[in-house]
Amino acid sequence: MLGLVLTAFFDLSRIAALGIVFYLIMDISIHWGVLRYLREDIKASRWPPVIAIALDVIVLIGFVWVKLNSDPFVIGVAIVSMVLIAIGVYVFLHSAARKHAMHQDDKHKNEH
Question: What is the pTM of this model?
């Protein structure tokens, strides 16, 4: 659905700019997840994800700076889109967790 809205209201350069912002944020998040949650499980060294995060942040800051000076609307759309996606994920995960907890409670009650 987001793709349809973007193609209706944005040209290819704006869509590509949004893609760059989303990709860099996603890449930073993945590397952070490896550092925070998976590093010991997969026996990963600490420095490659740290360097990748630093380089991603440098590129993201530079790109956002250029876009804020040339087309700030794209950065605004990216921020609003990310906030809406985060809210949607939060609501989904909490409703799924609640349903799972309720199912576990029902299962536990039926066992006794």
Answer: 0.76
Q: Give the chain's mean pLDDT.
A: 87
Domain segments of the chain as ranges: 2-111
Question: What span, in angstroms and rounded, lies between the C-alpha atoms of 4 and 10?
Answer: 10
Q: How many CA atoms lie within 13 A of 81 on its CB side?
A: 17
Question: CA 21, CA 85: separation in Å to the nearest integer?
Answer: 14
Q: What percentage of the chain reaches a pLDDT higher than 70? A: 87
The first and second tokens of residue 18, run together, are 């949004």
Query: What torsion do the CA atoms of 47, 48, 51, 56 make, to the nearest 10 degrees?
Result: -150
- H or E element at residue 41: none
